[in-house]
């Protein structure tokens, strides 16, 4: 690993990340796994005609109302219907995030002065392209729509090349960790309708590798980006990621999913839930625990809850 050598003023070039032997062997291993575990989702997923509304599409503990008085006021039938629309929302967020991710990653393929990580990035894009397809297909077949959150409109600041590279992978990492939390819990819960569970499991099988890659690339690029950037840009970068965390959390409380579940006052409900101590505790102690612990470990302190 490259030292954080900003104090000595010795610049370390981003393009040399791939020269670090630990990083290089990890990427080599991930490429091997992507090849061995390659799944052709286009031909292998068998789509059922429908998924019943009276089954769980997400475990009740994953619902945005869980732990609050709002959940207690809903019948099991209403909670199951809400689980359908919360699942469509979670998968819609994957569509949105993966489309952005493919766009941003492919723009950096073979770019000069960037590390030679193309071999793995090709697998990354290949896998995300399949996810984007099956999440979009799922939302349209069983929900008749893909929700829009406008969640990705945060990449508006101008940063230097090193910081932009770091921030791209940091946003991808946070996005994938949040999705991964849903995949692991819903994919392992036998109460969840079998086909929905299967989609969570297929996704998680690839995502575990992407998250491993994210951790490796962030550990390297954080030191380089922060050594190469003025203090004001480092501060702006942390604020940028904080905003991304907040927008990501807020996107899980999409008012349209309450409306589609027949629950009135979706905008007010979203506001109440985002302020609810039980939900704020869930964000900090469960949903974002892993990614924020990692980010803190590389020197990026982030809060789980909107201020
Ligand atoms: Fe994905
Ligand atoms: Fe991914």
What are its keywords?
307 residues, mainly alpha, Ribonucleotide Reductase, subunit A, globular, disordered N terminus, binds fe (ii) ion
* CATH architectural designation: Orthogonal Bundle
SSE pattern, N- to C-terminal: HHHHHHHHHHHH
Tell me roughly what share of residues is in helical segments: 55-70%
**Bound chemical compounds:** fe (ii) ion
The CATH homologous superfamily corresponds to: Ribonucleotide Reductase, subunit A
Largest sheet: none
List the helices and strands and how they pair.
Blueprint: H1 21-36, H2 41-44, H3 69-72, H4 76-107, H5 118-143, H6 161-187, H7 194-228, H8 231-250, H9 255-260, H10 266-275, H11 277-287, H12 289-297
Helix pairs in contact: 1-7, 4-5, 4-6, 5-7, 6-7, 6-8
The structure holds fe (ii) ion (2 copies).
Description:
The chain has 307 residues and is mainly α. The protein has one domain (50-297): Ribonucleotide Reductase, subunit A (Orthogonal Bundle), CATH 1.10.620.20. Helices cover 65% and strands 0% of the residues. It has helices at 21-36, 41-44, 69-72, 76-107, 118-143, 161-187, 194-228, 231-250, 255-260, 266-275, 277-287, 289-297. The longest helix has 35 residues, at 194-228. The chain is globular. Mean pLDDT is 91; it is low at 1-11. One fe (ii) ion is lined by residues 98, 128, 131, 203, 207.
């Amino acid at each position: 690993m490259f030292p954080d050598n900003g104090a000595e003023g010795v610049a370390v070039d981003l393009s040399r990340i791939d020269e670090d032997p630990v990083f290089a062997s990890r990427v080599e291993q991930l490429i091997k796994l992507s090849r061995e575990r390659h799944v052709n989702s286009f031909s292998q997923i068998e789509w059922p005609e429908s998924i019943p509304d009276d089954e769980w599409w997400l475990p009740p503990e994953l619902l945005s109302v869980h732990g609050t008085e709002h959940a207690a006021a809903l019948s099991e039938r209403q909670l199951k219907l809400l689980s359908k629309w919360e699942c469509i929302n979670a998968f819609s967020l994957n569509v949105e995030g993966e489309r952005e991710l493919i766009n941003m990653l492919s723009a950096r393929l073979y770019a000069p002065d960037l590390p030679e990580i193309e071999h793995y990035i090709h697998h990354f894009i290949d896998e995300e392209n399949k996810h984007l397809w099956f999440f979009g297909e799922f939302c349209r077949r069983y929900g008749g729509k893909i929700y829009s959150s406008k969640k990705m409109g945060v990449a508006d600041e101008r940063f230097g090349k090193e910081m932009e590279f770091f921030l791209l992978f940091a946003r991808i990492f946070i996005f994938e960790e949040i999705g991964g939390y849903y995949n692991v819990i819903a994919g392992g819960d036998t109460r969840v309708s079998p086909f929905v569970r299967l989609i969570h499991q297929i996704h998680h099988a690839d995502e575990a590798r992407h998250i491993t890659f994210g951790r490796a690339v962030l550990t390297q690029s954080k030191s380089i980006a922060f050594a190469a950037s003025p203090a004001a840009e480092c501060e702006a970068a942390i604020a940028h990621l904080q905003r991304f965390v907040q927008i990501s959390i807020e996107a899980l409380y999409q008012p349209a999913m309450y409306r589609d579940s027949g629950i009135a006052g979706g905008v007010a409900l979203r506001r109440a839930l985002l302020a609810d101590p039980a939900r704020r505790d869930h964000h900090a102690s469960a949903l974002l625990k892993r990614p924020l612990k990692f980010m803190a470990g590389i020197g990026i302190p982030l809060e789980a809850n909107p201020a």
